[in-house]
Amino acid sequence: MTNQNKLWGRLTLPSEENFYNETLEMLDKLKADAIRDSDGTKLPDEIKDIEDVDIYTTYFTVRDINDFAEKNLDEAIRLYLSSEFKTATSESLEIDLLEDYYDEQIKIDYKSDYKKYWEVRDRTTGKVVDINDWTLDKDKVIIKTIPFHDYSVSFLAFGIWDPTQMYNYITNDWKDVPHHIPMDVRGEKTSKYVEEALEKWLIENPKTDIVRFTTFFYHFTLVFNKEAKEKYVDWFGYLHTVSPNALDKFEAQYGYRLSPEVFIDEGYYNSMYRKPSKEFLTYIDFESKFVAERAKRLVDLVHKYNKKAVMFLGDSWIGIEPFGKYFKEIGLDGVVGSVGDGITLRLISDIDTQMKEGRFLPYFFPDTFYEGNDPSIEARDNWIKARRALLRSPLDRIGYGGYLSLAYKFKDFTDYIANIADEYRLIYNKISEKIPKVSAKVAILNSWGEIRRWGSHIVAHGKRFKLAYSYMGLMEALSGMDVDVSFINFDDLKEKDLNEFDVIINAGDAYTAFSGADYFSDSKIIEKLRSYVYNGGGFIGVGDPSAYQKNGKFFQLRDVLGLDVECGFSQGRNKYFTKVEDSHFILEDVIGKIDYGEGKENVYAIDKDTRILDYYNEGVRMATRDYGKGRSFYMAGCPYSFQNTRIIKRAIMYVSHKEDELKKYFAESIYAEVAAFKGLDEYCIINNSNKDIETKVYDKDGNVKDLSLRLGEIKWIKE
Predict the structure, then answer these.
(1) First to last CA, the chain
(2) Which of 661, 687, 708 marks a domain boundary?
(3) Which one, out of 104, 175, 266, 410, has a CA that is 20 to 30 A from the CA of 491?
(4) Would you say residue 3 has pLDDT above 50?
(5) pLDDT tens-digit series, residues 446-482
(6) In a shared domain, residues 307 and 416
(7) What's the CATH code of the domain at 639?
């Protein structure tokens, strides 16, 4: 990419046809050094010929190739699906496989041996129905049943419409646009075609500097219902990768066949919230290795023609586990992703690759850029929320997407994003080669660990879900906090020296992958955590930490937390301990009602040594406890807010016995934060709010000064 001086560049803008002079104007105004195309736009040669500007071109590998796809439908993408669960009222039951699937997206796979690859399950007993007790009749399965048991069919289907294009097609009411048929690169003809088509394209597009793969081969799970609405979505889902070819190769490599239930997973489809089975984790590894090998071939082709290869972290990114063990082998020059908040920024910026670029909001689309609306409001909120994370892990580039002709009409908006770009460059120039100073080392403990770094609690990228936001807030708070965050799973827990961490955090609903489910039936895990805290470590639990009903308790670390949950089994046991502390270090900055999100009911203190910080409706909502030389802290839920961020910051310092170090590089106002860096003789204070504030700010030695900051302002202070 173009060499960039300190006052210019590191910014990508979209452009389009018949917009040459305006593009030049916007490049100059925003000091941009790269141009990209967007969905529905193409860059004409006159724009590609602009000097000192790199050209990004979007490239699809296995979609938008219908001339090939229509002749080779046997190699279209397949996926495992489950029928609806149906209850038998007699000794025979008929199940319509496509009862609630969109027939323009899903077609039953009749080409494969359904007796080999399909499965019927009695969902009352959980057992597989004998293969001789069911038959297939077109789109229906007829099952010999036990009356009043419920049943489902796990079947293979072709996905004949790319989910992203389908979403855009329906949302934008496109007409007369061919449906993109996604193809499976495991097919021999498709594999050969994909490589030959890319090489041909590279020869025919000499003015492209950077090929942006969107992404490689397999779409995240997105299936639509009969009304063309989203039926099931999982941004980490692997359903679209499954084919007879993949299943047979897995069996040849590992010596056993994967049951359809490995993917159907009782109808939950291996949601991120499900504790992953050993077989499914093995399949992720198997598929990731395959995708990395095939993606590397394409990246090598791009390099052969002296271009750079970047990938978009979205759409067809499954199998590209950016924190997995095969990602580096692909040889990508960079990644690009959409930044909605601090979590998604860290999801991009923490990836180990040469260049990380974040696409900021809003996209230049008609739903935002219309007369009477002020898109700079969304831009400001997006920037301020992401900036605190950027100070912990800087992006190498930023950019925008959509239709530049729309944004061009909003001068106040383009003035504002020009200021954002300048502020970003200033931050980057100061800190890109510096290491942030940290007040503590924190480990997030869940079933996924590092492979899903910053992916905790995500269902669909950038969307709010009722049972997620109470934990996403914790992750958002940590994304921009002055702490070093690691992600560990329960196998890591057994193997690691936990003393490298000041605090271990376990946060999630009971029986989910994030709380840990039956990992907490393993005595070795409980021993390790108890010993860690007893000997001086800190433990923070949010929601249902260590929850697993067994051995007379729900919180398996009830002694560490000083808390348990009344599940109805011990209502006759009096809960005497309800006194709330008059004050506490953790609560010193609380200025209003604490938001616990969905919260938790019926949490109670087990004895007088539990210090209750908040009690409501006969339940503990916040507490802390000494345990040996260590400490624990509990919070019933943690949506993102300035106040909750400060509570978590203080809790980290408290349980790690660092209260005396809090007011170093510290702002008293909960709306402000301080960031400092090793080897840099200045530090910054950021106002994370949309209002002017005044605050006391402490330097590295605890010396204090008064500062005023305008809404969203950042100030740099010499040491």
Answers:
(1) 35
(2) 661
(3) 266
(4) no
(5) 999 999 999 999 999 878 899 999 999 999 999 999 9
(6) yes
(7) 3.40.50.880
Same domain membership, residue 606 and residue 510: yes
Average pLDDT on 119-144 reads 97
How big is the CA angle at 232 (ends 227 and 238), to the nearest 5 degrees? 135
Q: Is residue 125 part of a domain?
A: no
Confidence (pTM): 0.96
Domain that holds residue 315: 11-66+187-232+248-260+275-433
Reduced to 3 states (helix: H, G, I; strand: E, B; else coil), residue 548 is strand
Enter the tokens of residue 647.
Answer: 């509570």
* 173-193 pLDDT per residue, tens: 888 889 999 999 999 999 999
What stretch of H or E contains 701? none
- Over the stretch 62-71, which tens digit does the pLDDT of each residue have? 999 999 999 9
Distance CA 183, CA 187 (A): 8
Could you give the CA distance from residue 444 to residue 489 in angstroms, rounded to a whole number? 8
Amino acid identity at 162: D
Same-domain status, 372 and 449:
no
Locate tokens 């070795």: which residue?
524
CA 671 centroid distance within chain: 25
Would 182 be classed as within a structural domain? no
Write out the catalytic residue numbers: 315
pLDDT at 6: 66
Contact 326, 289 (CB under 8 A): yes
- Give residue 538's pLDDT band: very low, low, confident or very high (50, 70, 90): very high
Query: In whole angstroms, how far apart are CA 459 and each of 54, 315, 418, 465, 466?
Result: 34, 14, 33, 8, 11
CA gap 362, 383 in Å, rounded: 10
Q: Which helix (H) or strand (E) holds 91?
A: none
Please report whether residue 652 resides in a domain. Answer: yes
List % helix, strand, coil for the chain (3-state, nearest 5): 30, 25, 45
In a domain, 218, yes or no: yes
Amino acid at 127: K
Q: What is the residue whose two structure tokens read 């029986």?
A: 511
Q: How many domains does the chain have?
A: 3
Which pair of structure tokens corresponds to residue 349? Answer: 């910026």
Instruction: Examine the fold and report which residue of 393, 418, 433 is the final residue of a domain before the chain moves on.
Output: 433
Tokens of 208: 């492209």
Q: What's the CA gap between 63 and 169, in Å, rounded?
A: 14
**pLDDT of 5:** 59
pLDDT tens for each residue of 482-532: 999 999 999 999 999 999 999 999 999 999 999 999 999 999 999 999 999
Looking at residue 169, what is its pLDDT?
86
Domain of 709: which CATH number? 2.60.40.1180
Q: Strand pairing partners for 604?
A: 564
Question: In 130-177, which residue ranges form alpha helices assigned H by DSSP?
Answer: 163-171
